[in-house]
Automatic annotation (TrEMBL), chain A:
PROSITE patterns registered for this protein in UniProt: ABC_TRANSPORTER_2 (PS50893)
Gene3D superfamilies cross-referenced by the UniProt entry: P-loop containing nucleotide triphosphate hydrolases
Annotated source species: Bradyrhizobium diversitatis
CDD domains per the UniProt record, alphabetical: ABC_Mj1267_LivG_branched
Superkingdom as given in the UniProt entry: Bacteria
Described purpose of this protein according to its UniProt entry: Involved in beta-(1-->2)glucan export. Transmembrane domains (TMD) form a pore in the inner membrane and the ATP-binding domain (NBD) is responsible for energy generation.
Molecular-function GO terms, alphabetical: ATP binding
Keyword entries, A-Z: ATP-binding, Nucleotide-binding, Transport
UniProt name for this protein: ABC transporter ATP-binding protein
Domain ABC transporter: residue ranges: 5-246
InterPro entries: AAA+_ATPase, ABC_AA/LPS_Transport, ABC_transporter-like_ATP-bd, BCA_ABC_TP_C, P-loop_NTPase
TrEMBL record, chain B:
Key words, A-Z: Cell membrane, Membrane, Transmembrane, Transmembrane helix
Protein origin, superkingdom: Bacteria
Topology relative to the membrane: Multi-pass membrane protein
Keyword Repeat: no
Compartment list: Cell membrane
Protein name per Swiss-Prot or TrEMBL: Branched-chain amino acid ABC transporter permease
Xref: Pfam families: BPD_transp_2 (PF02653)
């Protein structure tokens, strides 16, 4: 079976600073894959490279076997890859309902239609309602997204990301800044919503990572130094030295 | 959980009522349009109403760009003007070829003229949003305005292209000679265009336009190409601006290069922004106000455009939501029943504000008369001021300085009262 | 043979003369444009605000220059008027833009748009709508040199000298001073401006003031040579925006090159009287007036006003970032 995401020898330079160096990563279909690493390691940059937000200097990225590096983000999204952002990135002046609905429209095939009334599309309405229910924001449906609390915005961010029904979902630090209880709720939410899909997640909270991931990759200075099951990563001496050692104190 | 269920079932239960209100507002608008010329039937007011109708269509079309898609255009009049020229040429062609197309269909051709140019240049223009788009729209506007003076055979040079609306085939026996018939024609197209533009905001494209306005980056990650969205919005805006231009061509029986110039582009921006871009009815208010001021002020003062500029700057600085935003701000307070606590502070603040405004008007009029070399008295609310008398200057200085200082204090009080009222509204769940 | 050669030589001299004079005038116009576009570019890069009223500050410079010249003579005016304009610019930043900043860039742009509109009306109210009699100072009112048959005025040489001096001074300030380094950092890393520290407001105000003062200076020196009139800002403003979009928004070298290109192209276009008809012969007369015959018969000089905008369209097709731009928006 072809891998869901295959990153081959990707380099990314900003000016003459190499931020990502010889990045190789393979994520199988249906796998829950966590990327961890210290601040500034290039995790978000990796997300940007895969999702088409920035173009690699060299190397290629494949989605379900097809080369996607060089495509526009919306083309990649239409092929079934969806991502969230580390810094909340929603439609601030639109209501919660409209935020989620916007993310549903393309996937339900309504595209740029200007001859349909958006309020009388039953499948759009049902799907939007279901996702709002899932992310526990039904009671806030008519509130502009910019006025939500921080934790609510993070949940909305997840909702927008999964609304299109993408088969590959990438979440960049979804629980950052949440309280313990909020984190727990978010993790069970993520677990439920990505059932049967491929998940790539960046996370600093080790309990989340080890509780959720099937496999983990450790990124340090733009290079993956280890990749494996949580058990393997826990035991890997390189990882302990470069990363987990820091976490410990 | 109980609050969640109640507030969800709330809108559903209210849906019928909401619907009724919604159609009621539109129906009321149509009735007003029908009755208006029966109440104010003088030729002057009919012309004013016609102008206002055209301005509303134009401003609504502009808001497809500014309010809906977040595109600030400094050259929207290009589509208005080209719509007007297209309409004139089509009318002349109909007359000379004897085609059986009656006048009421002409605005459609105007719309196609505006749309055609939008299709042509829009793709290039909407590649980028923000400041770059603003600058490019200005450049294209200047390009077309200057070219129109070169292509004399198409645009008729300085004189423009004239036409005769009564020479077209009749419909329902109407000649469209009398202004009242033209008024009803404009009113008809106003209603049709407004409904169409409102409907557009309720389509997938309309909703995604808002998303592009709020966050063009994120839109790319939910499957949409923001460039395509902007382009389509631009085409629709061009189409409806063209309809407005076609209506203007019918009303004036002429199209000239002033139609597509920078001033016309600036006026529609003023009208839309002053009215408020965040609500569909905002540009309608703005178009009514700006056209009315334009007609009213020109006869009262020689420097009416300066007042426009000042009003515009005031709105940008103190109420960027425009008049509509200002009105709608009060809705949650009204519902929560805490609005009345703010009103007294308003009443107090209005006095020094009006004094300040009077002072500014006195200063401007005095200077204008001084450099214009005329000495006619300044008539302010029935009081005559002699622009040459030091008493006037002192009055102006006192009004400006005193008004400014006191207005600042009183508006701070309004702010405090407002915060208290908003807290009440928030507690009662009417404000997020 | 003999009789035909002389006119040809005369003609060639005339062409040469036209070229030399046009290059001089073109560079001069280009340098003036750069005096304006440099300030506009730096302000845009640092604050993200495209100052629509920049050309209005140029106009204020010209009118202040005119008025002060009348009261106290040209040379004091030459110093005072730009300072006055700079002070107005600082006030606009401090009391206008800073308060509007929270409403976003569109609101800021609209504020400067309203200002441009209001300034034009105020100028028209005070000085009228027809050109004022702003004369070249007597000290510089003589021909500097004669090329072929044309006297080149000393005042234009003075203008050129002033703009070159300012250009060099700007370079030195950018390269050698603290504020210059901050500005440079802002040009390359616009998102870092926020980290300038607590006096970021002061830096903005000073930069805005200096940019406005430069525009004012351009107005003071250009006023006597060009026409000082209440519509001069509206006429120059759009060209200024073409310059900075053409050069690449936020790029100072781009603004410099674009200023010179547009200055030269405009000047040459105005000087040329040729049309397609004069090159290829008249169009078949049977057609009567049409769009084609309009284009065929129009002279390059008549097209001059639209040439900058045509350049804008071309650059957008070929290189949407502008000549030297690197930034998306
Ligand atoms: N557009 C850019 N231009 C220049 N440098 C950049 C750019 N984007 C990211 N970088 C740099 O690349 C490095 C990696 O950044 P990235 O955001 O990918 O780190 P990260 O692993 O996600 O860190 P964190 O855990 O803090 O989110 C950082 O040093 C950052 O400064
Ligand atoms: Mg990151």
């Amino acid at each position: 079976m072809t891998a869901a995401i295959e990153v081959r020898a990707v380099e990314k330079r900003f000016g003459n600073v190499g931020i990502i160096r010889d990045l190789n990563l393979s994520i199988a279909q249906g796998e829950r894959h966590a990327i961890i690493g210290p601040n500034g390691a290039g995790k978000s940059t990796t997300f940007n490279l895969i999702s088409g937000h920035i173009k690699p200097t060299s190397g290629e990225v494949r989605l379900n076997g097809d080369v996607i590096s060089g495509l526009q983000p919306f083309e990649i999204n239409r092929r079934g890859l969806s991502r969230s952002f580390q810094v909340t990135n929603v439609f601030a002046r639109m209501t919660v309902w409209e935020n989620v609905r916007s993310a549903v429209l393309w996937a339900t095939g309504h595209r740029y239609a200007f001859w349909k009334n958006v309020d009388s599309l039953p499948e759009v309405r049902e799907r939007t309602a279901r996702i709002l229910e899932d992310i526990h924001l039904t009671h806030r449906r008519d509130v502009p997204a910019g006025l939500l609390t921080y934790a609510e915005q993070r949940e909305l961010e997840i909702g927008i990301t999964i609304a299109g029904g993408a088969t590959v979902v990438m979440l960049d630090e979804p629980t950052a800044g949440m309280s313990h209880a909020e984190t727990e709720r978010a993790v069970s939410l993520i677990r439920r919503l990505t059932e049967g899909r491929t998940l790539v997640i960046v996370e600093h909270d080790m309990s989340v990572v080890f509780g959720l991931a099937d496999r983990i990759s450790v990124l340090v200075y733009g290079h993956i130094i280890a990749s494996g099951t949580p058990e393997e990563i826990r035991r890997d001496p390189k990882v302990r030295e470069a990363y987990l050692g820091e976490e410990a104190h | 959980m109980t609050t969640a269920t109640t507030s969800v079932s709330g809108p559903a239960a209210n849906a019928a009522g909401e619907n009724l209100r919604f159609y009621g507002v539109w129906l009321a608008g149509v009735i007003v349009l029908i009755v208006l010329p029966l109440v104010f039937s003088s030729g002057g007011s009919l012309t004013s109403f016609s102008l206002i109708g055209i301005a509303i269509v134009f401003a609504l079309s502009y808001n497809i760009l500014l309010g809906q898609t977040g595109l600030l255009s400094f050259g929207h009049a290009v589509h208005y003007g080209l719509g007007g020229f297209t309409a004139c040429h089509v009318m002349n062609a109909i007359v000379s070829h004897g085609w059986p197309i009656p006048l009421p269909f002409i605005p459609l051709f105007g719309g196609l003229g505006g749309l055609g140019f939008a299709i042509l240049v829009g793709w290039l223009m909407t590649k980028r949003a923000g400041t770059v788009f603003a600058m490019i729209s200005l450049g294209i506007g200047e390009l077309v305005a200057s070219s129109s003076l070169i292509l004399r055979s198409v645009f008729g040079g300085e004189a423009g292209i004239t036409t005769d609306r009564t020479a077209l085939p009749r419909m329902f026996g109407w000649t469209f000679g009398p202004q009242i018939q033209v008024y009803y024609l404009i009113a008809f197209w106003l209603v049709v265009s407004a409904i169409a533009m409102y409907a557009l905001t309720r389509t997938p494209l309309g909703r995604i336009s808002n998303a592009v306005r709020d966050n063009p980056e994120r839109v790319q990650f939910i499957g949409y190409d923001p460039h395509v969205v902007r382009y389509l919005a631009y085409c629709f805006a061009g189409f409806f601006a063209g309809i407005a231009g076609g209506l203007a061509a019918i009303s004036f029986e002429i199209a000239n290069s002033a139609y597509l110039g920078a001033i016309q582009s600036g006026l529609v921006l003023f009208a839309t922004f002053i009215g408020g871009t965040a609500y569909f009815f905002g540009p309608i208010l703005g178009a009514i106000l700006v056209t009315y001021l334009q007609l009213g002020l020109t006869s009262v003062t020689s420097v009416w455009q300066l007042y426009f500029g000042i009003i515009f700057i005031g709105i940008v600085m103190f109420s960027p939501g425009g008049i509509a935003g200002l009105v709608m701000m009060h809705r949650p307070l009204l519902r929560a029943g805490s609005l009345w606590t703010v009103i007294p502070s308003y009443l107090v603040a209005i006095v020094p504000t009006v004094a300040l405004a009077c002072g500014v008007i006195l200063v401007i009029e005095t200077i204008a008369r001084h450099s214009g070399g005329e000495a006619s008295a300044i008539n302010l609310f029935g009081i005559a001021f002699n622009p040459k008398s030091p008493a006037t200057w002192i009055a102006a200085a006192v009004l400006v300085a005193g008004g400014f200082v006191i207005a600042r204090l009183t508006w701070r009080r309004v702010g405090e009262a407002w915060d208290r009222a908003a807290t009440v509204a928030r507690d009662r769940g009417y404000l997020a | 043979m003999e009789t035909g050669a002389l006119p040809r030589i005369v003609h060639e001299y005339a062409v040469l003369e036209l070229i030399v004079i046009s290059i001089l005038n073109g560079v001069l116009f280009g340098m003036l444009l750069f005096l304006l576009s440099s300030g506009l570019t730096v302000i845009f890069s640092m604050m993200g605000v495209l100052n629509f009223a920049h050309a209005s500050f140029y106009m204020l410079g010209a009118f202040f220059g005119f008025q002060l010249t009348k009261w106290i003579g040209f040379w004091p005016a030459f110093v005072l008027a730009p300072l006055l304009v700079g002070a107005i610019g600082m006030a606009v930043e401090r009391y206008g833009l800073r308060n509007t900043h929270k409403h976003g860039h569109v609101a800021e742009l609209l504020l400067t748009f309203g200002l441009a509109f209001a300034i034009e009306e105020i100028v028209a109210m005070i000085w009228g709508r027809s050109p004022v009699d702003y004369r070249v100072p007597a000290l510089l009112d003589f021909p500097a040199f004669t090329i072929f048959s044309t006297n080149y005025p000393a005042y234009k040489i003075f203008m050129l000298a002033v703009s070159v001096v300012i250009f060099v001074a700007l370079l030195l300030v950018l390269r050698r001073t603290r504020v210059g380094l901050i500005v440079q950092a802002a040009l390359t890393h616009p998102h870092m401006v926020g980290h300038l520290g607590h006096n970021v407001g002061r830096v903005f105000m000073v930069v805005f003031g200096v940019g406005s003062a430069l525009a004012g200076l351009a107005g003071v020196i250009a006023g006597p040579a060009l026409v000082t009139q209440s519509d001069m800002a509206a006429a120059l403003g759009p060209i200024l925006f073409v310059v900075i979009v053409f050069g690449g928004l936020g790029s100072l070298p781009g603004a410099f090159v674009a200023s010179l290109v547009i200055g030269l192209v405009q000047t040459f276009a105005v000087a040329l009287n040729g049309s397609l008809a004069s090159v290829f012969g008249p169009l078949d007369a049977a057609g009567g007036p049409s769009a084609l015959s309009d284009i065929w018969n129009v002279t390059i000089a008549q097209v001059a006003p639209i040439i900058p905008y045509l350049l804008l369209v071309i650059i957008l097709i070929v290189r949407p970032m502008g000549l030297m731009g690197t930034r998306e928006s």
